[in-house]
Design a protein that fits this description.
rod-shaped; 5 strands; three-stranded antiparallel beta sheet; 1 helix; two-stranded antiparallel ribbon
Length: 75
C-alpha cells in the first residue's frame, strides 16, 4: 500500500491505484483529497518489479532449440 499525503495535512493509504491523465499530468484517481487537491506520494523503492511467468520464457525452450538445431544439421 502506498501512503498519500495532501498539503492540507490529510493522509490516506491506497492499495490499488487507477492512474489517469488529469489537470495536465498523470494522477491517481483515488488520491483526490476532500479539500479538492491531489495527494502526492513518495515512492519507497521506485517501480515495482514484474515477474513474467509465461511458458515461452522458460529456459527449456532454449535447450529444445539447440537439440533441434543439432538434429537438423546432423552434428
Amino acid at each position: 500500500m502506498t501512503l498519500y499525503s495532501c498539503q492540507c495535512g490529510n493522509t490516506q493509504e491506497i492499495g490499488k491505484q487507477t492512474i489517469r491523465y488529469r489537470d495536465g499530468g498523470w494522477k491517481t484517481i483515488e488520491a483526490r483529497c476532500e479539500c479538492g487537491l491531489w495527494m502526492e506520494s513518495k515512492p519507497e523503492k521506485g517501480l515495482p518489479s514484474i515477474v513474467r511467468t509465461e511458458p515461452t520464457l522458460s529456459k527449456k525452450r532454449d535447450k529444445l532449440w539447440s537439440r533441434a538445431k543439432e538434429r537438423l544439421l546432423n552434428k
